[in-house]
Amino acid sequence: xxxxxxxxxxxxxxxxxxxxxxxxxxxxxxxxxxxxxxxxxxxxxxxxxxxxxxxxxxxxxxxxxxxxxxxxxxxxxxxxxxxxxxxxxxxxxxxxxxxxxxxxxxxxxxxxxxxxxxxxxxxxxxxxxxxxxxxxxxxxxxxxxxxxxxxxxxxxxxxxxxxxxxxxxxxxxxxxxxxxxxxxxxxxxxxxxxxxxxxxxxxxxxxxxxxxxxxxxxxxxxxxxxxxxxxxxxxxxxxxxxxxxxxxxxxxxxxxxxxxxxxxxxxxxxxxxxxxxxxxxxxxxxxxxxxxxxx
Amino acid sequence: xxxxxxxxxxxxxxxxxxxxxxxxxxxxxxxxxxxxxxxxxxxxxxxxxxxxxxxxxxxxxxxxxxxxxxxxxxxxxxxxxxxxxxxxxxxxxxxxxxxxxxxxxxxxxxxxxxxxxxxxxxxxxxxxxxxxxxxxxxxxxxxxxxxxxxxxxxxxxxxxxxxxxxxxxxxxxxxxxxxxxxxxxxxxxxxxxxxxxxxxxxxxxxxxxxxxxxxxxxxxxxxxxxxxxxxxxxxxxxxxxxxxxxxxxxxxxxxxxxxxxxxxxxxxxxxxxxxxxxxxxxxxxxx
Lengths: 295, 287
Known about the structure:
The complex is a heterodimer. Chain A is mostly helical. Chain A folds into 2 domains: 16-55; 59-294, Orthogonal Bundle (MetI-like fold), CATH 1.10.3720.10. Chain A has 11 helices and no strands. In chain A, helix 3 runs parallel beside helix 6, helix 7 packs antiparallel against helix 8 and helix 8 runs antiparallel to helix 11 (263-294). Chain A starts with 13 loop residues before the first helix and ends with a helix. The model of chain A has no long low-confidence stretch (mean pLDDT 90). In chain B, the strands form 3 sheets. A 6-stranded mixed beta sheet of chain B has the order 8-9-10-5-11-12, sandwiched between helices. The longest helix of chain B has 14 residues, at 3-16.
């Protein structure tokens, strides 16, 4: 009989002790990796809010831009952003999700579609200024739309399309093949299978990716400056064929002013307004996502 | 169910099946005496370069349970999926030969797989209810196929037919995924039945279930056979002996993959197989 009495030492020693020490160190390194950038972000947020808070009021949100810093507001930037973003969403979401569905559910699996998929991934990494140059050539000058809301939305839609396509493809792939088979085996067509089962199953993932993409479009500056979006709009936009400005462009212009004219707090306040807008957008997406998840 | 009950059921299955006379392709491939529902004619299938079925021919009787047995990789699931063209979904699959369903070749050009699958339903190995309510699961097939009747009645009738109604009638709106594994599989059977098919294919329908749930599904198969033609793939020889009227034994050997070795009434296959390899498999000497 084996003796289970005294003498068995279960305290870590030798190799086990070394492995455990390494494990404890990794805990602190990983914690640091999380806390460091988060701390930096919090500091930036605090700095911006503390500088801009004094300017944050109803007048600031509802006034047109002005040469006098204390009278300037972001009314036209907010409206311009809503117009451009609304049109961007209307263009990019149907095309992006449609492309993803075709590539995942309908396209034949051959070299051509593999090449298309690879290129879409590459397009997601193209700097936004390049999209701006493209927009300037094709939409502003080529098509003659000028630096309008329409041109801006087309450029932003092109810019976020790869992101929407890739995340939607990923979400569609997450739907188990057994669901697809079950539906087809009941005599559903491909489209009925996509519409009734695959798309609802992929919707939470598609929503997440799409909202990320829209948030990126909301903060986009370079591409819109490239197509010549106006810095000074002192009227409310009423059609897509008008000049426009957006909050990021307004922020960019205010930060360019020499210090001492009082425009820096305006820029900070506009950043706070933009942040609130993007957070609200994300909140809407979370609500929609949870609704789909429950069904 | 007690052991003796299972044994008596096995005996009943063995004695009740009609004797099958050997004819046609070879001495070991029999032909059912009843009316033929599905006729598999010289089917060969490749996944890319790899052959999975080699010249399989067999005829399947109307309103009987026909079991496909054989070791893993013998092509029995592949053969089953040939019948309702589910292999179409695998891009690399290439099929030669014909499957005649009540005289019409399923593989003829111009045949719509959707029409085929509407008549030839399928139940899968792993229960795969849709992440929707029990009601919507059952109603789905009828809905996409343009059913014009009363959906409430259809759902009730189908769930009763699948012996699930009494367990779920008060929670038709709860998710199909909330059911137990055996209930989920019966929901999948109800879903297939609601489509009013002619043939129901079952691909190892009990392999993910516990013994009690398995027995329920087997009872159900026997009941459904009076109205539907049932073809079942199974790993479990006792199951084939218990539920089927006819049994086909398939095998992959060094020469060719996915061959039909022997096909006869279940009683013959299990009592006096003609092929040595069938006997070896049934006696548990390999596979």
